[in-house]
Amino acid sequence: MLKLENITKSFEGTTILNNLNLEVKDNAILSVVGPSGAGKTTLLRCIAGLEKADSGKFILNGEPLDPADESAKERIVGVVFQDFNLFPHLTVLQNVSLAPEMVLKQDKKTSEAAAKDLLAQLELSSQANQYPFELSGGQKQRVAIARALAMQPKILCYDEPTSALDPSLRDAVADLILDLKKTGITQIVVTHDPEFAKKIADQLLEVKPINK
Amino acid sequence: MHYILEILPSLLSGTVMTLKVFFWTLVCSLPLGVLVSLGRSSRFKPLSWLVSFYIWVMRGTPLLLQLIFVFYGLPNMPFFHIVFERYDAALFAFILNYTAYFAEIFRGGFGAISKGQFEGAKVLGLNYWQTIRKIVVPQVLKIVLPSIGNEVINLVKDSSLVYVIGLGDLLRAGNIASSRDVTLVPLLLVGVIYLLLTLVCTWVLRILEKHFSYYR
């Protein structure tokens, strides 16, 4: 279980998150909804360690967790970015296998075999040797998911997973996220689309802009 | 034709010197340029200021003056004397100068890499140097290649400045032959050799650009 206690974050005097408390059960899908500027993405960035919370605690299964700790041996939190942030100069396969090689020190054979498995799961096998610019939006997103999963995170965060896709792909993403639940991973999905949120969510968190 | 064959050996030995200065300057200045540009954008302010000052001096004064200063000036400094051989002095000045230019080019290249690339690497657990080496530099190279190419071609011709400290490069060899035999033929030949050298550079750069066009 992931627990957030009294998380506060402000930028230049504007408080975005104010004493936020939250519990996400293992293997659950949490949808975070709310209007623009309410702090959905800030919350996600704090959980991912891209921003440091001003105060408050993260607790994972009873152990304190510092998402911003770069020296941590394992990656607890994976992220699928809104515009994916794939590495354009690497093939799909290299995008997925790079971090296990560099960070987990796996040898090339192991990391590539694992990456190929992941790509097969996500129906990307025939794209393995293509470059990101050759892919469709949906394919890019699945590569981003595969890349995050390759580090075997316990929690996977999505920032607006439907915003860069055709409306017709919305249901496909929802199915994919629901499907990943079977692997035992905890997922946190930030979205401004309440319908999408309800479709996938076990838990729903609504954030509202803080009025000064 | 006979005359050309007669002076060609001396011109070619001058060309060897030109190529040596060219080659070592490139080999040292390119990686140094990457490091210096990282220092320039360092969050540690004194380092960033120091690097900015260095770049300002190197780009703000003529390379010719820098050459003279390194060879004639450094040995006569009041407290410490640094004496260089002619060739070493030339390389030292060229590397210092070109590193500054390359650093500014790389700075532009680094600036063109989106924040998302750094964040993508960070959440995967890559550390700073892994990110620079595996994610940033390969992309920066593609971006800066045309500007680097410009400097590379400039360097071919700038190398002729070493004549000022008495180094026997291509231009000097042509000059000597020209004034000795009272004819412009050697200088024309020198021009042709420079053209050939830059032609080869242009060709290599084009191949490199093609190599980097595998992604967008």
Automatic annotation (TrEMBL), chain A:
Residues 2-210 form the ABC transporter domain. GO terms for molecular function: ATP binding. It comes from the Bacteria. SUPFAM superfamilies: P-loop containing nucleoside triphosphate hydrolases. Keywords: ATP-binding, Nucleotide-binding, Transport. Gene3D superfamilies: P-loop containing nucleotide triphosphate hydrolases (3.40.50.300). Coiled coil: none annotated. This is Amino acid ABC transporter ATP-binding protein.
TrEMBL record, chain B:
Keywords: Amino-acid transport, Cell membrane, Membrane, Transmembrane, Transmembrane helix, Transport. The keyword Lyase does not apply. Residues 15-205 form the ABC transmembrane type-1 domain. CDD domains: TM_PBP2. This is Amino acid ABC transporter permease. Belongs to the binding-protein-dependent transport system permease family. InterPro entries: AA_ABC_transptr_permease_3TM, ArtM/GltK/GlnP/TcyL/YhdX-like, MetI-like, MetI-like_sf. It is found in: Cell membrane. SUPFAM superfamilies: MetI-like. The keyword Transferase does not apply. It is a multi-pass membrane protein. It comes from Companilactobacillus baiquanensis. The chain crosses the membrane at residues 21-39, 51-74, 184-208.
